[in-house]
Amino acid sequence: MRIRSWQNNAMPIQQPSRVPNFLYGTAWKEDRTQALTELALRMGFRGIDTANQRRHYFEAGVGQGLAAAYRQGVVVRADIFLQTKFTYRRGQDHQLPYDPAASLSVQVAQSLASSLEHLGTDYVDSYVLHGPSSPYDWAAADAEVWEAMRKERDAGRTRLLGVSNVSLRHLEQMEAAHSEHPAFVQNRCFARLGWDRDVRLFCRERGIIYQGFSLLTANMEVVHDSLIVAVAARLNATPAQTVFAFARAAGILPLTGTSNPEHMKQDLTSLGFVLPPDAVRAIETLAG
Ligand SMILES: NC(=O)c1ccc[n+]([C@@H]2O[C@H](COP(=O)([O-])OP(=O)(O)OC[C@H]3O[C@@H](n4cnc5c(N)ncnc54)[C@H](OP(=O)(O)O)[C@@H]3O)[C@@H](O)[C@H]2O)c1
Protein backbone atom coordinates (compact mmCIF):
# COMPACT_ATOMS: atom_id res chain seq x y z
CA MET A 1 0.00 0.00 0.00
CA ARG A 2 1.18 3.45 -0.80
CA ILE A 3 0.99 6.07 1.91
CA ARG A 4 1.51 9.66 1.06
CA SER A 5 1.44 12.95 2.87
CA TRP A 6 -1.60 15.06 2.18
CA GLN A 7 -0.66 18.61 1.46
CA ASN A 8 -3.46 20.17 3.51
CA ASN A 9 -2.08 19.57 6.97
CA ALA A 10 0.70 17.07 6.42
CA MET A 11 -1.24 14.20 7.99
CA PRO A 12 -0.66 10.93 6.19
CA ILE A 13 -3.57 9.59 4.24
CA GLN A 14 -3.96 6.21 2.65
CA GLN A 15 -3.83 6.60 -1.07
CA PRO A 16 -6.87 4.89 -2.55
CA SER A 17 -6.24 3.07 -5.75
CA ARG A 18 -8.61 0.92 -7.77
CA VAL A 19 -11.74 2.48 -6.30
CA PRO A 20 -14.65 1.97 -8.71
CA ASN A 21 -16.97 4.84 -9.57
CA PHE A 22 -20.14 3.18 -8.24
CA LEU A 23 -20.70 0.89 -5.26
CA TYR A 24 -23.39 -1.77 -5.12
CA GLY A 25 -24.98 -1.93 -1.67
CA THR A 26 -26.12 -5.27 -0.27
CA ALA A 27 -28.26 -4.20 2.71
CA TRP A 28 -31.77 -5.58 3.21
CA LYS A 29 -31.48 -8.26 0.51
CA GLU A 30 -31.79 -11.27 2.87
CA ASP A 31 -32.20 -14.50 0.89
CA ARG A 32 -31.78 -12.62 -2.39
CA THR A 33 -28.32 -11.42 -1.38
CA GLN A 34 -26.37 -14.11 -3.21
CA ALA A 35 -28.32 -13.80 -6.47
CA LEU A 36 -28.34 -9.98 -6.45
CA THR A 37 -24.62 -9.73 -5.67
CA GLU A 38 -23.87 -12.09 -8.53
CA LEU A 39 -26.23 -10.20 -10.82
CA ALA A 40 -24.68 -6.84 -9.90
CA LEU A 41 -21.24 -8.19 -10.84
CA ARG A 42 -22.61 -9.58 -14.12
CA MET A 43 -24.18 -6.21 -14.88
CA GLY A 44 -20.82 -4.51 -14.42
CA PHE A 45 -20.57 -3.31 -10.81
CA ARG A 46 -17.05 -3.72 -9.47
CA GLY A 47 -17.56 -2.24 -5.99
CA ILE A 48 -19.53 -4.15 -3.33
CA ASP A 49 -20.54 -2.66 0.02
CA THR A 50 -21.62 -4.86 2.91
CA ALA A 51 -21.31 -5.10 6.72
CA ASN A 52 -20.89 -7.79 9.34
CA GLN A 53 -24.23 -6.78 10.80
CA ARG A 54 -26.67 -9.66 10.31
CA ARG A 55 -29.56 -7.42 11.33
CA HIS A 56 -29.40 -5.56 8.00
CA TYR A 57 -26.91 -7.48 5.85
CA PHE A 58 -26.38 -11.13 4.95
CA GLU A 59 -22.61 -10.94 4.48
CA ALA A 60 -22.22 -14.70 3.96
CA GLY A 61 -24.74 -14.40 1.09
CA VAL A 62 -22.49 -11.73 -0.46
CA GLY A 63 -19.63 -14.23 -0.22
CA GLN A 64 -21.77 -16.87 -1.93
CA GLY A 65 -22.58 -14.41 -4.73
CA LEU A 66 -18.89 -13.62 -5.14
CA ALA A 67 -18.00 -17.32 -5.22
CA ALA A 68 -20.62 -17.95 -7.91
CA ALA A 69 -19.29 -15.04 -9.98
CA TYR A 70 -15.70 -16.32 -9.63
CA ARG A 71 -16.78 -19.87 -10.58
CA GLN A 72 -18.49 -18.64 -13.71
CA GLY A 73 -15.58 -16.47 -14.75
CA VAL A 74 -17.47 -13.16 -14.37
CA VAL A 75 -14.72 -11.58 -12.25
CA VAL A 76 -11.64 -12.50 -10.26
CA ARG A 77 -10.99 -11.23 -6.74
CA ALA A 78 -8.47 -8.67 -7.96
CA ASP A 79 -11.10 -7.04 -10.21
CA ILE A 80 -13.37 -6.03 -7.38
CA PHE A 81 -13.42 -3.57 -4.52
CA LEU A 82 -14.85 -5.19 -1.40
CA GLN A 83 -15.93 -3.02 1.51
CA THR A 84 -17.33 -4.17 4.82
CA LYS A 85 -17.90 -2.68 8.26
CA PHE A 86 -17.42 -3.07 11.99
CA THR A 87 -20.67 -2.44 13.86
CA TYR A 88 -20.91 -1.76 17.59
CA ARG A 89 -23.02 -4.04 19.81
CA ARG A 90 -25.87 -1.52 19.95
CA GLY A 91 -26.25 -1.65 16.15
CA GLN A 92 -26.49 -5.43 16.12
CA ASP A 93 -29.20 -7.93 16.97
CA HIS A 94 -28.45 -11.22 18.78
CA GLN A 95 -26.39 -12.56 15.82
CA LEU A 96 -23.04 -11.12 16.83
CA PRO A 97 -19.81 -11.59 14.87
CA TYR A 98 -17.72 -11.19 18.05
CA ASP A 99 -17.67 -11.87 21.75
CA PRO A 100 -19.47 -8.88 23.34
CA ALA A 101 -17.51 -9.43 26.57
CA ALA A 102 -14.19 -8.99 24.77
CA SER A 103 -12.43 -5.64 24.49
CA LEU A 104 -13.35 -3.45 21.51
CA SER A 105 -9.94 -4.13 19.93
CA VAL A 106 -10.60 -7.86 20.09
CA GLN A 107 -14.14 -7.36 18.75
CA VAL A 108 -12.69 -5.55 15.72
CA ALA A 109 -10.26 -8.40 15.05
CA GLN A 110 -12.98 -11.04 15.49
CA SER A 111 -15.48 -9.17 13.32
CA LEU A 112 -13.02 -8.70 10.48
CA ALA A 113 -11.88 -12.35 10.68
CA SER A 114 -15.53 -13.39 10.41
CA SER A 115 -16.04 -11.00 7.43
CA LEU A 116 -13.06 -12.50 5.62
CA GLU A 117 -14.51 -15.95 6.16
CA HIS A 118 -17.96 -14.84 4.93
CA LEU A 119 -16.46 -13.19 1.87
CA GLY A 120 -14.00 -15.99 1.06
CA THR A 121 -10.98 -13.72 0.94
CA ASP A 122 -7.91 -12.91 2.98
CA TYR A 123 -8.29 -9.13 2.62
CA VAL A 124 -10.95 -6.53 2.00
CA ASP A 125 -10.31 -3.32 0.11
CA SER A 126 -11.98 -1.09 2.66
CA TYR A 127 -12.93 -1.57 6.31
CA VAL A 128 -15.34 0.96 7.73
CA LEU A 129 -16.45 1.89 11.23
CA HIS A 130 -20.23 1.71 10.72
CA GLY A 131 -20.88 4.62 13.04
CA PRO A 132 -19.29 6.29 16.07
CA SER A 133 -20.39 5.23 19.53
CA SER A 134 -22.04 8.58 20.21
CA PRO A 135 -24.01 10.77 17.80
CA TYR A 136 -22.23 13.83 19.22
CA ASP A 137 -18.57 13.11 19.84
CA TRP A 138 -15.64 11.01 18.67
CA ALA A 139 -15.31 9.13 21.96
CA ALA A 140 -12.59 7.03 23.58
CA ALA A 141 -14.35 3.87 22.33
CA ASP A 142 -14.10 5.13 18.74
CA ALA A 143 -10.43 5.93 19.22
CA GLU A 144 -9.80 2.37 20.45
CA VAL A 145 -11.73 0.88 17.53
CA TRP A 146 -9.95 3.12 14.99
CA GLU A 147 -6.52 2.12 16.31
CA ALA A 148 -7.55 -1.56 16.16
CA MET A 149 -8.70 -1.02 12.56
CA ARG A 150 -5.33 0.52 11.73
CA LYS A 151 -3.61 -2.57 13.12
CA GLU A 152 -5.77 -4.76 10.87
CA ARG A 153 -4.80 -2.57 7.93
CA ASP A 154 -1.10 -2.76 8.84
CA ALA A 155 -1.43 -6.57 9.01
CA GLY A 156 -2.78 -6.56 5.43
CA ARG A 157 -6.33 -7.66 6.19
CA THR A 158 -7.73 -4.45 4.68
CA ARG A 159 -6.12 -2.10 2.18
CA LEU A 160 -7.96 1.02 3.32
CA LEU A 161 -10.06 2.35 6.20
CA GLY A 162 -13.19 4.42 6.47
CA VAL A 163 -15.81 5.84 8.82
CA SER A 164 -19.56 6.09 8.32
CA ASN A 165 -22.49 8.08 9.71
CA VAL A 166 -20.23 10.88 10.91
CA SER A 167 -20.81 14.59 11.42
CA LEU A 168 -18.30 17.33 10.75
CA ARG A 169 -17.75 17.48 14.53
CA HIS A 170 -16.87 13.77 14.63
CA LEU A 171 -14.39 14.26 11.81
CA GLU A 172 -12.78 17.30 13.40
CA GLN A 173 -12.42 15.49 16.72
CA MET A 174 -11.09 12.41 14.96
CA GLU A 175 -8.53 14.53 13.15
CA ALA A 176 -7.38 16.04 16.44
CA ALA A 177 -7.09 12.63 18.11
CA HIS A 178 -5.29 10.57 15.47
CA SER A 179 -2.35 10.77 13.16
CA GLU A 180 -4.13 9.47 10.08
CA HIS A 181 -7.23 10.36 8.10
CA PRO A 182 -9.67 7.77 6.83
CA ALA A 183 -9.59 7.04 3.11
CA PHE A 184 -13.42 7.10 3.01
CA VAL A 185 -16.37 8.74 4.67
CA GLN A 186 -19.71 7.04 3.96
CA ASN A 187 -22.80 9.08 4.84
CA ARG A 188 -26.50 9.35 4.10
CA CYS A 189 -26.64 12.25 1.72
CA PHE A 190 -29.54 14.62 2.34
CA ALA A 191 -30.23 17.22 -0.35
CA ARG A 192 -31.71 19.48 2.35
CA LEU A 193 -28.25 19.67 3.94
CA GLY A 194 -26.69 20.77 0.66
CA TRP A 195 -26.03 17.08 0.00
CA ASP A 196 -23.96 16.93 3.23
CA ARG A 197 -22.01 20.00 2.13
CA ASP A 198 -19.93 20.55 5.29
CA VAL A 199 -18.73 16.97 5.49
CA ARG A 200 -18.04 16.85 1.75
CA LEU A 201 -15.95 20.00 1.99
CA PHE A 202 -13.94 18.57 4.89
CA CYS A 203 -13.34 15.44 2.82
CA ARG A 204 -12.45 17.31 -0.36
CA GLU A 205 -9.85 19.44 1.44
CA ARG A 206 -8.14 16.31 2.73
CA GLY A 207 -8.41 14.00 -0.25
CA ILE A 208 -10.91 11.73 1.55
CA ILE A 209 -13.36 9.99 -0.79
CA TYR A 210 -16.94 10.79 0.16
CA GLN A 211 -19.36 7.90 -0.40
CA GLY A 212 -23.04 8.88 -0.49
CA PHE A 213 -25.93 6.52 0.20
CA SER A 214 -29.72 6.98 0.09
CA LEU A 215 -29.21 9.52 -2.69
CA LEU A 216 -32.67 8.64 -4.01
CA THR A 217 -34.53 7.38 -0.96
CA ALA A 218 -33.54 10.28 1.35
CA ASN A 219 -34.42 12.85 -1.31
CA MET A 220 -37.65 11.74 -2.96
CA GLU A 221 -39.05 15.27 -3.26
CA VAL A 222 -35.88 16.50 -4.91
CA VAL A 223 -35.75 13.55 -7.32
CA HIS A 224 -39.16 14.65 -8.61
CA ASP A 225 -38.44 18.38 -8.52
CA SER A 226 -39.10 20.20 -11.79
CA LEU A 227 -35.43 21.23 -12.07
CA ILE A 228 -34.23 17.61 -11.97
CA VAL A 229 -37.01 16.54 -14.32
CA ALA A 230 -35.98 19.28 -16.78
CA VAL A 231 -32.27 18.40 -16.60
CA ALA A 232 -33.18 14.74 -17.06
CA ALA A 233 -35.22 15.56 -20.16
CA ARG A 234 -32.29 17.53 -21.62
CA LEU A 235 -29.99 14.55 -21.07
CA ASN A 236 -32.54 11.98 -22.16
CA ALA A 237 -32.00 10.39 -18.76
CA THR A 238 -34.33 9.41 -15.92
CA PRO A 239 -34.49 11.61 -12.79
CA ALA A 240 -32.71 8.84 -10.85
CA GLN A 241 -29.89 8.78 -13.39
CA THR A 242 -29.67 12.56 -13.18
CA VAL A 243 -29.21 12.41 -9.40
CA PHE A 244 -26.40 9.85 -9.76
CA ALA A 245 -24.76 11.89 -12.55
CA PHE A 246 -25.01 14.98 -10.34
CA ALA A 247 -23.46 13.06 -7.44
CA ARG A 248 -20.41 12.14 -9.49
CA ALA A 249 -20.07 15.70 -10.78
CA ALA A 250 -20.18 16.95 -7.17
CA GLY A 251 -17.40 14.54 -6.15
CA ILE A 252 -19.64 11.97 -4.45
CA LEU A 253 -18.94 8.26 -4.91
CA PRO A 254 -22.52 6.95 -5.10
CA LEU A 255 -24.02 3.74 -3.73
CA THR A 256 -27.11 2.08 -5.08
CA GLY A 257 -28.98 -0.82 -3.58
CA THR A 258 -31.32 -1.52 -6.45
CA SER A 259 -32.77 -5.02 -6.81
CA ASN A 260 -33.93 -4.37 -10.37
CA PRO A 261 -31.68 -5.41 -13.31
CA GLU A 262 -32.93 -2.55 -15.49
CA HIS A 263 -32.15 -0.05 -12.73
CA MET A 264 -28.70 -1.62 -12.28
CA LYS A 265 -28.03 -0.90 -15.94
CA GLN A 266 -29.45 2.62 -15.70
CA ASP A 267 -27.47 3.39 -12.56
CA LEU A 268 -24.19 2.33 -14.18
CA THR A 269 -24.86 4.20 -17.43
CA SER A 270 -25.82 7.34 -15.47
CA LEU A 271 -22.13 8.02 -14.95
CA GLY A 272 -21.77 8.60 -18.68
CA PHE A 273 -24.07 11.63 -18.53
CA VAL A 274 -22.27 14.94 -18.25
CA LEU A 275 -24.23 17.65 -16.48
CA PRO A 276 -23.51 21.25 -17.47
CA PRO A 277 -21.83 23.19 -14.61
CA ASP A 278 -24.87 25.45 -14.17
CA ALA A 279 -27.06 22.37 -13.64
CA VAL A 280 -24.61 20.95 -11.08
CA ARG A 281 -24.64 24.27 -9.18
CA ALA A 282 -28.44 24.48 -9.30
CA ILE A 283 -28.97 20.91 -8.06
CA GLU A 284 -26.35 21.40 -5.34
CA THR A 285 -28.39 24.20 -3.79
CA LEU A 286 -31.85 22.97 -4.75
CA ALA A 287 -32.98 22.06 -1.24
CA GLY A 288 -30.42 23.46 1.15
N1 LIG B 1 -23.37 3.08 6.34
C1 LIG B 1 -24.64 2.95 6.58
O1 LIG B 1 -25.11 3.11 7.71
C2 LIG B 1 -25.59 2.61 5.46
C3 LIG B 1 -26.96 2.83 5.63
C4 LIG B 1 -27.80 2.53 4.56
C5 LIG B 1 -27.28 2.02 3.39
N2 LIG B 1 -25.95 1.78 3.27
C6 LIG B 1 -25.39 1.15 2.05
O2 LIG B 1 -25.88 1.82 0.92
C7 LIG B 1 -26.52 0.89 0.08
C8 LIG B 1 -27.58 1.56 -0.72
O3 LIG B 1 -28.59 1.99 0.14
P1 LIG B 1 -29.52 3.19 -0.31
O4 LIG B 1 -30.21 3.64 0.92
O5 LIG B 1 -28.74 4.15 -1.11
O6 LIG B 1 -30.44 2.51 -1.34
P2 LIG B 1 -31.57 1.42 -1.15
O7 LIG B 1 -32.25 1.56 0.17
O8 LIG B 1 -31.03 0.10 -1.49
O9 LIG B 1 -32.62 1.88 -2.16
C9 LIG B 1 -32.36 2.27 -3.45
C10 LIG B 1 -33.74 2.65 -3.96
O10 LIG B 1 -33.59 3.35 -5.16
C11 LIG B 1 -34.31 2.67 -6.17
N3 LIG B 1 -33.55 2.82 -7.40
C12 LIG B 1 -32.24 2.54 -7.61
N4 LIG B 1 -31.91 2.82 -8.89
C13 LIG B 1 -33.03 3.31 -9.48
C14 LIG B 1 -33.32 3.79 -10.77
N5 LIG B 1 -32.40 3.83 -11.73
N6 LIG B 1 -34.58 4.23 -11.03
C15 LIG B 1 -35.51 4.19 -10.07
N7 LIG B 1 -35.32 3.74 -8.82
C16 LIG B 1 -34.07 3.30 -8.52
C17 LIG B 1 -34.44 1.25 -5.72
O11 LIG B 1 -35.58 0.63 -6.23
P3 LIG B 1 -35.45 -0.74 -7.09
O12 LIG B 1 -34.88 -1.77 -6.19
O13 LIG B 1 -36.84 -1.00 -7.51
O14 LIG B 1 -34.54 -0.38 -8.21
C18 LIG B 1 -34.57 1.42 -4.20
O15 LIG B 1 -35.89 1.70 -3.82
C19 LIG B 1 -27.02 -0.20 1.02
O16 LIG B 1 -27.31 -1.40 0.38
C20 LIG B 1 -25.85 -0.29 1.94
O17 LIG B 1 -24.84 -1.06 1.33
C21 LIG B 1 -25.09 2.08 4.27
Q: Biggest sheet, in brief?
A: 8 strands, parallel, barrel
Radius of gyration over all CA atoms, rounded: 19 Å
Bound molecules: NADP nicotinamide-adenine-dinucleotide phosphate
Low-confidence stretches: 1-10
Shape: globular
Oligomer: single chain
Strand order of the largest sheet: 3-4-5-6-7-8-9-10
- The number of distinct β-strands equals 10
Q: Order of SSEs, N→C? A: EEEHEHEHEHEHEHEHHHEHH
The proportion of strand residues reads 15-25%
Structural class: alpha/beta
The tally of helices reads: 11
Helix content: 40-55%
What would your notes on this structure say?
It is a single chain. With 288 residues, the protein is an alpha/beta fold. 41% of the residues lie in helices and 16% in strands. It contains 11 helices and 10 strands. The protein has helices spanning 33-43, 59-71, 104-119, 140-154, 168-177, 197-206, 220-223, 226-235, 239-249, 261-269, 277-284, and strands at 3-5, 12-14, 23-25, 47-49, 81-86, 124-129, 158-164, 184-188, 209-213, 252-256. An 8-stranded parallel barrel has the order 3-4-5-6-7-8-9-10, surrounded by 4 helices. A two-stranded antiparallel ribbon has the order 1-2. Helix 2 links the parallel strand 4 (47-49) and strand 5. Helix 8 (226-235) crosses helix 9. The longest helix is centred in the middle third of the chain and has 16 residues, at 104-119. The protein is globular and about 55 Å long. 45% of the residues are buried. NADP nicotinamide-adenine-dinucleotide phosphate (NAP) binds next to strand 10 and helix 10.
